[in-house]
């Protein structure tokens, strides 16, 4: 398939209602409705698209569906993971096939960021990492608390209920994963874990209730760079790329280290997806031994999780986050949250930098009646604080 062709799974999803989408067809961005370069909207700025009230989002809606309905279907792709490597010291940009090198203002000492040009399958990632290792073998990367390895896992095909399952399960193991990533990453302001930034937990949990009360809110698609980017699990990448970004790993530059970390995260995310819902994850967690639960979620990487001192206590300590998220999801599944009347609120739109995206994805565009100017849902940020007893 050409790099800018519509993915087959996207054709299967929307092709029935769109005669323009045929297998193998390459569809470029329509000049009449281009994706605007680097839109950054303030609270009272225009334009704001109207919300299509006839098709509210539910927990069974997919991330891909939300991307298409929001006019950024060009982000759909088949790649499994994306990688960003921040480096300082004696660095170089020798020219790559798989990578691009960009200056990064957060780095010092000739800092540069190496970014995969597009998401890749895991086998292709090995080739990309081989290229990176060979072309940078003369570089002397410096150890720095500012450098890191970020891994994006593509979740475009996931439903929101599967996505909440991944987030809830991840919170259980976050302290262990942070410890694996290195001491400089613990309580690091650029990769805050849930225990260091409780507003992120409340935002995730309350986003379920808010999406049912105001269906223009597409659950976790409302997360934005201003409030959520620097979490160890960055959900602000969802409305931009349809990915979740793991920011916790220290700066690493060896092929095996990078691949093993990316494979661990990919394995974990997709094993949790197979469970289906966060309520099921929580049920299995309560009814299984911790060792068996770790085997189920991490597979070949389970021994790594169990190798850390007090790993069981760490998981139990963070289980409250999973329990709260499961509780809210269960209430939503029972229909306890009622839709409130939409009053066409003007809301803050997340900062989306399409001019220089972190991951350069295929330039395709899904054309559909749902993308007409008068029916694209608004993109709003969460207007919530900490969860109180009143919310229960």
Quick summary of this structure?
With 392 residues, the chain is α+β, with helices and mostly antiparallel strands.
Describe the structure.
With 392 residues, this protein is of the alpha+beta class. It has one domain. It is 36% helix and 10% strand. It contains 12 helices and 8 strands. Strands 3-4-1-6-8-7 form a 6-stranded antiparallel sheet. Strands 2-5 form a two-stranded antiparallel sheet. Strand 3 and strand 4 form a beta hairpin. Helix 3 runs antiparallel to helix 8 (255-275), helix 4 packs across helix 9 and helix 9 (278-287) packs across helix 12 (311-333). Residues 1-6, 9-54 and 343-392 have low confidence and may be disordered.
General shape: globular
Strand segment tally: 8
Distance between the termini: 49 Å
Q: Helix segment count?
A: 12
Tell me the strand percentage band. 5-15%
Mean pLDDT: 73
Class per helix and strand makeup: alpha+beta
Number of domains: 1
Largest sheet: 6 strands, antiparallel
CA-atom Rg in angstroms: 21 Å
Unreliable segments of 5+ consecutive residues: 1-6, 9-54, 343-392
Helix percent band: 25-40%
Strand order of the largest sheet: 3-4-1-6-8-7
Run of helices and strands = HHEEEEHEEHHHEHEHHHHH
């Amino acid at each position: 398939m050409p790099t800018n062709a519509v993915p087959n799974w996207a054709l299967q999803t929307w092709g029935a209602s769109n005669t323009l989408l045929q297998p193998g067809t390459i569809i470029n961005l329509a000049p009449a409705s281009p994706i605007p370069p680097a839109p950054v909207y303030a609270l009272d700025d225009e334009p704001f698209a109207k919300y299509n009230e006839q098709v509210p989002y539910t927990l069974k809606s997919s991330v891909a569906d939300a991307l298409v309905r929001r006019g950024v279907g060009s982000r759909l792709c088949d790649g499994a993971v994306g990688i960003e490597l921040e480096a300082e010291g004696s660095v170089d940009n020798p020219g790559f096939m798989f990578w691009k090198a960009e200056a990064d203002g957060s780095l010092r000492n000739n800092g540069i960021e190496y970014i995969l040009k597009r998401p890749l399958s895991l086998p292709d990632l090995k080739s990309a990492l081989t290229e990176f290792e060979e072309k940078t073998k003369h570089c002397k990367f410096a150890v720095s608390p500012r450098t890191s390895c970020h891994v994006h896992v593509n979740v475009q095909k996931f439903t929101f209920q599967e996505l909440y399952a991944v987030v809830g399960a991840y919170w259980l193991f976050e302290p262990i994963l942070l410890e694996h990533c290195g001491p400089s990453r613990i309580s690091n302001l650029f990769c805050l874990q849930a225990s260091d930034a409780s507003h992120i937990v409340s935002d995730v949990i309350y986003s379920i209730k808010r999406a049912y009360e105001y269906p223009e809110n597409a659950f976790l698609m409302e997360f934005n760079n201003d409030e959520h980017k620097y979490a160890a699990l960055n959900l602000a990448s969802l409305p931009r790329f349809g990915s979740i970004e793991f920011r916790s790993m220290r700066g690493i530059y060896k092929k095996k280290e990078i691949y093993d970390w990316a494979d661990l995260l990919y394995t974990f995310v997709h094993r949790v997806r197979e469970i289906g819902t966060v309520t099921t994850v929580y049920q299995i967690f309560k009814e299984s031994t911790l060792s068996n639960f770790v085997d189920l979620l991490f597979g070949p990487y389970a021994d790594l999780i169990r190798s850390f001192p007090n790993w069981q206590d760490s998981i139990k300590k963070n289980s409250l986050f999973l329990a709260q998220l499961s509780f809210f999801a269960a209430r939503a599944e029972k229909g306890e949250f009622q839709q409130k009347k939409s009053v066409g609120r003007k809301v803050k739109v997340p900062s989306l930098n399409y001019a220089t995206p972190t991951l350069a994805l295929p330039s395709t565009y899904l054309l559909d009646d749902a993308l007409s100017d008068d029916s694209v849902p608004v993109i709003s940020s969460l207007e919530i604080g900490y969860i109180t007893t009143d919310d229960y």
